[in-house]
Amino acid sequence: MDLPYVDRIPPEEVVRFRNESPEAFANFRASLRAAMIQISAIPGTKEFVEEAANVKTTTIDPALAQLQAEVSALKRQVRKRLSIDIPVFLGSSALAVFSPALLGGAAPTILGSFTMLDLLNTIKEKLVADEALKSNPYYFMFRLASA
Hints:
Blueprint: H1 11-20, H2 22-37, H3 46-102, H4 107-134, H5 139-146
């Protein structure tokens, strides 16, 4: 039986993905088991192929599309935040470096520290969101489909 999204990936890539995300692989196996339970036909028959195709079309593909939408939204959100955080950080860092000599104050240094914290928080939020995505039962297939 061909597995959707897995059959076109070299085995060493599948093993690498499995080793990188063991929880995602376990979730993938559970979702595959759940999908197989929906199929009542005998393997090798025309009915089995039709039922398997139906499960892929009605269950797996929509779940992967939803996950793709979530990943795209997360990427847009992070890009948007970083497009603000990085220039502000760079500008305030430049102020922190040059203004003590010019202005003699600590405000730019404090501003630089706050923007650095905001930048680090953005990165941390992305990492947390990435980990949350890995708990999705279709994340492993998503990774394979994206390979």
